[in-house]
Amino acid sequence: MPVEIAVTCTTPHCRALIVIPASAPYPRLYADANGWRATPGRDNCPACATGHGPVYEAGGDCPRCYGRARATNHGERCMSCGHDIPLEIDE
Fold first, then answer.
1. pTM of the complete model
2. Which of 21, 26, 73, 84 is the residue whose CA sits 20 to 30 A from 2?
3. 35-43 long-range contacts, Cβ below 8 Å, gap at least 24?
4. For residues 6 and 66, what is the distance between their CA atoms, to the nearest angstrom?
């Protein structure tokens, strides 16, 4: 069974989370590519790293911070970190 890595934001009251797949060869690079910033002793989610955090409501659809997303013309946008989630088209 593959083991996934979950990283949480260390900003007080932030509920952001990123799940790094077991297939990612370099977990830290995967997190960095998704907007997470690490400094000694801290992991900051994309929302907190850009000054838009903390993420108060986790469990949403954003793949970067699990924040809630709202509908846009082209898909959805995370209300916490601002990540655009493209509309999935079924063929």
1. 0.76
2. 84
3. 35/64, 35/65, 35/81, 35/83, 36/7, 36/64, 41/10, 42/10, 43/7, 43/8, 43/9, 43/10
4. 12
Q: Please calculate the CA angle 11-21-3 and round it to the nearest 5 degrees.
A: 100
Where does residue 48 fall: left (phi above 0), alpha (psi -120 to 50 degrees), or beta otherwise?
Answer: alpha
Over the chain (91 residues), the average pLDDT of each successive run of 10 is 81 91 88 88 90 84 88 90 83 66
Residue 84: both structure tokens together: 């655009």
**CA–CA distance, 5 with 80 (Å, rounded to integer):** 22
User: What span, in angstroms and rounded, lies between the C-alpha atoms of 36 and 29?
Assistant: 9
Task: In whole angstroms, give the CA distance from residue 28 to residue 26.
Answer: 6
Q: Are the CB atoms for 39 and 48 separated by under 8 Å?
A: no
